[in-house]
C-alpha cells in the first residue's frame, strides 16, 4: 500500500512538504496554549500582575488564530492532494484495463474491474486523506505535547507513559476480543442477506411448494445466531468508552496529586501541574486517534492489493509499432494454420488444430454446441485472445505482426449481444468509422435493417441512446451494432453469434441485404440457427474444440453425424427428411 | 472522510415517531433504566473537575497558610473522586450495554417480522416493488434504526445533561466567565452551519459526478471488445479523463469544506479558552476566584463544545432515523393477502379437470387484460400457451396458481372453485417449472426434497432418474450432498433446469405448469430437457408456455396471446386455417420459407 501512496504522491511532493509544515505549525500553536496558561497562573495570578495576564491572553488569541489559519490551509492541501491522488490512480487503472485481452478481463471479471476502479480507489482516497490529516497530525501533536510536558516537568512524564500504556492495553484487549467476532458477524450478515434475497427471488417457487414456513424457520435460526453475536460484541464494546474515561480521569487526578506534592518544595508546580494535565490529555487523545486510524489501515491495504494486482499485471497481448507488410496479399484473405488455444493453467484445449482458409467473397460459418469453442475461434482474429499454437494470417500477415490500428481497421466485429454506448444513434454508428456522409449513413442503416426503426425515432439519427442502450430493444441494439461494423467498410466481417438476438424474419432480410456486399469481403459467422448458415461457402462443425466436419450444408448432412443431430433438433421431421433427400441427390450428382 | 448523507426527512414525522415508540414498548423498562444510568454517569463526571479543583484550592490555601501541605483533607477528596470515577464508569457500562442489547433485539425482531411479512404479502406487491429496495430495508434501514437507537438515544440525553450540568457548574464558579463561554456558542454554531451547508452542496455535486464517472467506467469496461475492435481507446480515455477531472474539481471542494468545520470549531473553543484565561486571571488577581476553580473552569470550557455540537445534531439524526423507520413500517403495514376462506373446500382425489368460467383479469384496473375468457380443459390434456414476448403468457400461470385472483369470473378444478380452496392446497395440485431456475443454497438433496419434505432418498433418486440428471449428480464430487452455492455457479444452466424438473418429479403433483424456454443450453442438454418435459407432462393436465413446434402441434388446446389478451384458442390445424394472428406468428417464428 505504501508503494502506491509514495508513487502517486510523488508529483505532489512539495505540496506534501508544505502540508507537513502547516500541520506542524498548527500543532505547535495548540501546544503553546497550556504553557501560556501556566504562565498566566504563575506570573500573572500568583504575582498579581494584571498587565501580564492581559498580554499573555492576547498572545494566546494570536496563537489560536495562527493555528486555525494553518489548519484551514492544511485542510485545503490535503483535500487537493488526496483527490488528485485518486484521480491519477483511476486514470492509470482505466488505461491499463483497456489494454486487457478477453481472458484477462474474464480472469478478473468485469464486475470486479469496475469495483476496483471505483470503490477501491475511493477507499484508498479516503485512507490517503486520513493519513494526510490525522495520521500526520496525531503523532506531531503527540510528540509536541510530550516535548512540552518534559520541558515543564521532567519528573512527571512517567504519568503520561502510564496513561498511554493503560489506554493501549485497554484498546488492545477490547479489539482483540471483538475483532474475531466481527468477522463472524459480517458472515452472518451476509447469510441473512442471502436468505432474504432467496426469499424474494424464489417467491413464486416457495409459494408454489407451500414452503413459506420452511423458509421462515431457516431464516429464524440465522437471525437468532446473529442476535447472539450482536449482543456479545455489544457487551465487549460497552467497556471501551467507560474504560477510556476512567483512565483519563485517573491520569488527571494523578497529575494533580503529584503536582500538589511537588508544590510543597516549589510553589510554581501548581501552575506547571495545570498545564501538564492538559498535555497528558493531548497525548492520550492523539494515541486514541492513532489506534482508530491504524485499525482502518488493514482494510485499505486490501483495496491497495486489489488495485496493485491490476497495475502490476503485464498485458499478455503486445502489439507491433508498425505492421510488417512484407507478405501482404492483394486481396482479403483469412487463414488459420493448425491453431490451438488453451486458457492458462487449464488442463484441456478450448481449440485444437484448427485449419481453414477463407478468400475474398466467401462466407465461412462455425456451428457447434455451447462450449464447442466456435466463438473463441473468431475472437482470435482481432486478438481478443492469442492462439497458444499455430498461426493466424490476415491478408498473409500474422496477426501478431500487426500494428493494432491496422488490424482493427480491416475488421468489422459484431458481438453476441448488441453493445451500445451512451450518445446518439449516429455516434454509435460512427463509433469505428469516424464522421460519415449522410448517404453512407443511410446505406448502412438500410443494410442493417435499422433504417425503418431509426426513422420512427423522434429525432432519427440524432436520437439519444442511453447508457448500455437500454432505451432500444435487444433486436434494435443488434441491428445498430451491425450498422456500426458495416460503417467501417471492413475487409472482414465477423458475426459472433450475432443473429440469435434477431427474429427469423429480420435475420433473413438482413442476410439478403448483405448479399451484394459480400463479393468484396470475407464474412465469418458464428451461429446457432442452421437456417442462418445453410448457404455458407464453408461450414466448420466444431465439437469440444475440434473440427468434426468441414464443407457445405448438404455435404455435411451426409458426412457429419454431429451436424445431422444439430439440424434434426431444429427442423421439423418433415423438413429434416426432405433436406436429407436433397443431400442424397446432390451426393449422387457429385 | 465519510460522505455526508443528504438529510432524509420522513413524510409523516409524528405518525412514524408514534409507530416507532409503540414498537419499542416492550423494552420501555430497560430503555428508561439506561436513560437514568446515563444521567447518573453524566452528573458524576460533570462534578469531577470541580472536585479536582478543590484539591488545588485546598493545597494552595494550606501552602499559603503554613508553607506545608496538609494531605489529610486532600486524600479524602481524592478517595471520593476515585469512588466517583468507578461508579460513573460502571453506570456508563450498563447504560451502553442495555442500549446495545435492546438495539440488537429490536433489529432481530424487525428482521423476523419482515421475513414473515414477505410470506403474507400478495405476489402483486413484489411485482410492483423492486427487490433492491426491499433488500435495502432489510439491511440498511433496520440497521440505521438499530444503531440510532443504540447511539443517538442515550447520547442525546447525556449530551443534554452534560450541557446543563456544565452550565450549572460554570455559573456556580463565575457568572461573568460563564457568559463569555455561552456567548461564543451561537457564533460558533452559526459559522459551522454555514460551512456544513457549503460542504453539503459540494457533496451533492460530487455524488452526481461520481455517478457519471461510474457509468463511464461501467460502459467502457462492458463494451471493451467493441472499443478495441474500433480502435476507440484514445477517445474513450479522453472522455474518461474529462469526467475524472470534473469529479476531482467537486471532490476536493467537498472534502475541503467538510474538513474545515473542525478547525473552525476549534478556533472558537480556543477563543473561549483565551478569554477565560484573561477574565479568570483578572478575577483571580482581585481575589474573586480561587485557583482551583480557575483550573476547573478551564476544564469545563474544553468539555463544553462537544456536547453542544452533539445536541445540535440530534434533530437531523432523529429525522434520518424516522425516514428509515418509515420505510420499514410502511413495508410491515402493507396490505396483506386476503385470508383463506374459513371453511375451505378440499379435493379428495384429483382428476385434473380445469375450467375457466368467464374469467376477466387486469393488473391495472385501467387496462383490462383478460376479458371474459372461458375454456374447459379435460383431465390429462396438454395446453400450449403461445404468443410473442411480453404478451402476458405468465398471467395464465399467475391465475392458475392463485398468485393473482381473477377480477371477475372464477376457475374450477374438478368442479370446485379454486377461490373456495386454501391457496396452499391449490398450489399443491400443480408442479411448476419456470424459465428462471430458482434453487436455494443448500445441498442437491435438500433442493430436490423441496416439494415433498418427507421424500426418502430412493424417491429422490427416482425423481432425478426421471429427469435424467441422476448420472450428472453422481458425477458431482459429493453426489447428492453437493452444496449448490449462491447464484449456483457450480451448476450449469442446463443442469439447473434438469434439477428443477427433478424437484417436481419428486413432488409428483397431479398437474403441471411449465415454461419451455431454455436459455444458454447446448443442443444435447436441450434434448435431455425436452425428454424430461415430455415425461413430466405425460398423462397429467399441463399448461405449457410453448416455444417448440412439436409441443404446439401435439397440444390439445392452444391459447394464443397478444398484448395480454387471449386472442385465439383452438388446435394447431384449425388455427392455421383461420389465418389469423396465430398463423402470422407461426410463420414468422417457425416456418423456414
What is the CATH architecture annotation of the largest domain in chain A?
Up-down Bundle
Major beta sheet of chain B, specifics? 6 strands, mixed
Sequence of strands across the biggest β-sheet of chain A: 6-9-10-3-11-12
In the CATH hierarchy, the third-tier topology of the largest domain in chain A is known as ABC transporter transmembrane region fold
Number of helices of chain A: 20
Strand arrangement across the biggest beta sheet of chain B: 6-9-10-3-11-12
Helix content of chain B: 55-70%
Q: Averaging pLDDT over every residue of chain B, what do you get?
A: 85
Architecture overview:
The complex is a heterodimer of chains A (590) and B (593). In chain A, 43% of the residues are buried. Chain A folds into 3 domains: 2-312, ABC transporter transmembrane region fold; 333-551, Rossmann fold (3-Layer(aba) Sandwich); 552-590. Helix content of chain A is 65%, strand content 11%. Chain A has 590 residues and is an alpha/beta fold. In chain B, strands 6-9-10-3-11-12 form a 6-stranded mixed sheet, sandwiched between helices. In chain B, helix 8 (233-285) packs antiparallel against helix 9. Residues 1-7 of chain B have low confidence and may be disordered. In chain B, 65% of the residues lie in helices and 10% in strands. Chain B has helices at 13-23, 28-66, 71-120, 123-128, 131-173, 175-222, 224-229, 233-285, 291-332, 393-400, 423-428, 444-448, 457-466, 470-475, 493-507, 523-537, 549-554, 572-578, 581-589; strands at 354-361, 370-377, 382-386, 408-413, 416-417, 430-433, 442-443, 483-484, 511-515, 541-545, 557-562, 565-570. Chains A and B meet through helix 2, helix 3, helix 5, helix 6 and helix 7 of A and helix 2, helix 3, helix 5, helix 6 and helix 7 of B.
